[in-house]
Amino acid sequence: MARQLESVPLEPLPLPTQITAGDGTRLDERGYEDFRSVFIDTKVISRAAGSAYVELGDTKVMAAVYGPRQSERKFGFSDRGRLNCELNYTSVAQKLREKQAQRSSRKELSAQLTTALQGVVDLDRFPKAVVDVAVLVLQVGH
Predict the structure, then answer these.
(1) 87 has which bridge partners?
(2) 54 to each of 13, 19, 60, 62, 133, how far by Cα in Å?
(3) Alpha-carbon span 135 to 142, nearest angstrom
(4) CA 87 from centroid of its chain's CA atoms
């Protein structure tokens, strides 16, 4: 029996009005053949079941997975586990994000993250359990 994923209406983020400068470089000063620098470090949060710190150019994000843990009684019995995702911004990242006019709320972005992860997390393996995913955007790049 194929399982059906819950759908969350997704709103596309606004595209930049201009991505290249007149001299043929990108606005972030990279050439067409240049890549953003990438840095990834895992197991950065000792109490998490899994965690990572990721830098993509000037964007810095930390993510952690907690669980599976027993679900609270108020949610009742379920043959499938539950996935809770929360995405937050530091105050510095939030200010820059607001300047970039991205209007998606944290709640909407958390719902989109949940939808994306539901396709890869096998919740059938964790009946009566909860898996929590926390993502913190430390710095927003260009």
Answers:
(1) 135
(2) 21, 24, 6, 6, 15
(3) 19
(4) 6
Q: What is the pTM of this model?
A: 0.72
Amino acid identity for residue 119 in this structure: G
DSSP type of residue 20: B
Question: Mean of the pLDDT values across residues 79-94?
Answer: 85
Asked if residues 85 and 131 have their Cβ atoms less than 8 Å apart, the reply is no
Residue type for position 135: V
Q: In the chain, what's the furthest Cα-to-Cα distance?
A: 61
From the number of C-beta atoms within 10 Å of its C-beta (0-12, 13-18, 19+), residue 140 rates as buried
The better pLDDT of the pair 76, 5 is held by 76
